[in-house]
Amino acid sequence: MADTYKNHAPSCRQEMASKSADDTKTTSKLLGLKQDDYEVLVMAASAIGLSILYNLLQESMFTSDAKKYTGMITMMTSLVYAVLAFFEFKHELVSHAKTKAAHGGDEGTTVKTGVLENMKGTAFDYARLGTLTAAGMYFTNWSLQYLNYTLRVLFKASKILPTVLIAVMFYKKKFSVAEYVNILVLVASIVLFSYGDAVGKGKTDNASFDIFGIALITVGVIADALTSNFEGEHLFKTRKASHSEVMMAASLFGSLYMLVLMFMTGKAMDSYQYLIENPDLAVKVVVSCSAGYFSITFILKIIQRVGAVTAEIVKSVRRVVSIVLSFIIYSKPFLSWHLIGSLFFVLFIYNTFQAKVAKQKAKDAAKAAKQIQEAVDLEVFGNGNKKNGGGH
């Protein structure tokens, strides 16, 4: 062992010196943060800022006459997502091809960068998924004719409830008691907020509540939960499809479904006429959807860079800030029921964060234990091999 250490000591010292030099280069004098830390902070700030822009523009649309044209807004939203995801998917394919070429890929073979030939999911997969994504978006948007936008933010967070139920019933997954309790905390938050909206209905122009809206958004949330489970279990795990591919294909099918629905309900021409008279609606849809799309992209980048815990903090901050700004900008009544519901929502966020931290610690501990075991095995079996070799 001593000889082994002596042989490797110079290279180890060189590696440590190189790493120290790299740390010195990438560490800023300001706050003592490394370059990677600044990059994560920029991504987090971008994700929060873009999410706030998305929510404010969405609320401005659904507090105007545009909310009557749910089908058109849903179709345009899906179309924007499809276009953005197409460019992201294409970029991923080209980047992968360049990387493979730079590392000397298989001789005589050309890496294909066509979109259709690189898709992992089938047309039938995305036809089904498009139905779910379009339904989730359509019913959620429709509910905003009867509910406050703030309640929409809370209900979208409650997607975890049907998601868990579907995962347990159809995919036989198991969850802890703490996770079930945390779901009940979120449900309590939504109930309290809903009651606050019901009590405050009519007190200002922006205060609205109707039980029919609750029914609509419940359908939307269930569709979103089915979407999440289908994506996760079938497309991501089984098909190994990328996020951009799934978003592109599902959104394209969703926009086609909405176009067909508009013609079937006889609202296509009215919607077109409204859009011609109010071109700013198209601008709001494009800008808000682009902001929402890139906000999600930054969240995914944060998960890749530093893990799910930091990403969960960012998502929590953007939800809270969006709710606060909604009440301030649109002058909605904030009653004691809203306050209690907000406290329950903060408790839900805190519990979710703690659960993420616990899972990350368990994952790190398992990884460390595996590394230690591998080192022990290498020491035991490595020395055994040396002895055997020496005997011959």
Rg over C-alpha atoms, rounded to the nearest angstrom: 26 Å
Describe the sheet with the most strands.
none
Number of helices: 13
Please state the overall shape, judged from the principal axes of the Cα atoms. globular
- Beta content comes to under 5%
Assign the structural class, choosing from mainly alpha, mainly beta, alpha/beta, alpha+beta, or little secondary structure.
Answer: mainly alpha
Distance between the termini: 21 Å
Which spans have pLDDT < 50 for at least 5 consecutive residues?
1-29
Helix content: over 70%
- Mean pLDDT comes to 84
Please characterize this protein's 3D structure.
- With 392 residues, the chain is mainly alpha-helical.
Tag the structure with descriptive keywords:
single chain, 392 residues, mainly alpha, 13 helices, globular, disordered N terminus
Provide a concise account of the structure shown.
With 392 residues, this protein is mainly α. It has helices spanning 2-26, 35-61, 70-102, 123-143, 149-157, 160-171, 177-200, 211-236, 243-264, 268-277, 280-306, 308-329, 336-391.
Topology:
Layout: H1 2-26, H2 35-61, H3 70-102, H4 123-143, H5 149-157, H6 160-171, H7 177-200, H8 211-236, H9 243-264, H10 268-277, H11 280-306, H12 308-329, H13 336-391
Helix pairs in contact: 2-11, 2-12, 3-4, 3-9, 3-11, 4-8, 4-9, 5-7, 5-12, 6-8, 7-13, 11-12, 12-13
